[in-house]
Amino acid sequence: QQALELPSLPLANFEVISDPCSGLEVAFENLSPQSGPFSWDFGGGAGLPNDETDPVFVYPAFGTYLVTLTAGAGSECADIQTQEVIVLPNNPFDSTWVIQPLAACEETGFMLLQYNGNGADAVTWDFPGVFSSDSSSVEMYFPSVGDYQGTITLYNAYCDVEQTWDVEATVPPALQGIDYLVPNVISANNDAKNDVLTAQLTGPDGNPISALDPGQFYRYELSVFNRWGNQIFSTQQAGRGWRPDESVAEGTYYVLFKSHHVCDDEPFEYSGEVTVVR
């Protein structure tokens, strides 16, 4: 009696051999190269199916993809393996963070430090002699007015990479209300000079105020009308302004502006003309 030898069943088994966080090009190694024919699906509609044994694929964008290898493709005994593949750049971090004072109408020193970027599994703020925190968003008290030097450190576990940046926190004097100045002329020629209609905010000392938290306004309404009374712009987002595009002709327009910050003694209201020149 002669033993019947059956061929080995197809086995799908692969791994990524590119270094983590090495860009858009990803190399795959087929750990069962005798189990062909093969079909690769690189996930997310990224390219057509591939029948190579050990393909190298260039992804169109960074992100997470489900990669599927079919061994014995087209046969009744096909085997399938699917893995999640993360495609990241050499530097996986978005260096995007906010360091700004919180509303302090009678006292000062409270600051918001918040990391808003992607790619960080761990965030550490460190201001020597003041505080250290492992929270991505933290409200902290600085003891006096002035500039404080610190660092933010980001860590990505998948890439096993850590990077540190120098940062500065500037604690302003207590805010004793806001003075508003609405311009009556703007030059809408996209030269980054007076081409946006927005209220200029200054303190009682005449110094400009910046980086106010929009959530600190009870009310903020800016509306622009043409000469026929039709509203052509409106916003309730504090700090946002009107930037006339090319469809807006030179001439006179009409502005209504209302604002009430938490440190204002009373609401501010303004109505007047603004002239657009190019």
Helix-strand layout with pairing:
Blueprint: E1 14-16, E2 25-30, E3 38-41, E4 56-58, E5 63-71, E6 79-87, E7 97-101, E8 110-115, E9 122-127, E10 131-133, E11 137-141, E12 146-156, E13 161-171, E14 179-181, E15 185-187, E16 200-202, E17 217-225, E18 231-235, E19 251-261, E20 268-277
Parallel strand pairs: 15-20
Antiparallel strand pairs: 1-2, 2-4, 3-5, 5-6, 7-8, 8-11, 9-10, 9-12, 12-13, 14-16, 17-18, 17-19, 19-20
Task: For this entry, give a set of tags.
four-stranded antiparallel beta sheet; 278 residues; elongated; five-stranded mixed beta sheet; Immunoglobulin-like
In words, what does this structure look like?
The relative contact order is 0.12. By secondary structure, this protein is an all-beta fold. It is elongated, with a radius of gyration of 30 Å. The protein has strands at residues 14-16, 25-30, 38-41, 56-58, 63-71, 79-87, 97-101, 110-115, 122-127, 131-133, 137-141, 146-156, 161-171, 179-181, 185-187, 200-202, 217-225, 231-235, 251-261, 268-277. Strand 5 and strand 6 (79-87) form a beta hairpin. The protein is built from no helices and 20 strands. The chain is 0% helix and 45% strand. It has 3 domains: 14-87, Immunoglobulins (Immunoglobulin-like); 97-171, Immunoglobulin-like (Sandwich); 179-277, Immunoglobulins (Immunoglobulin-like, Sandwich). The strands form 6 sheets. A 5-stranded mixed β-sheet has the order 15-20-19-17-18, with no helix packed on it. It has a 4-stranded antiparallel β-sheet with strand order 10-9-12-13, with no helix packed on it. The mean pLDDT is 90.
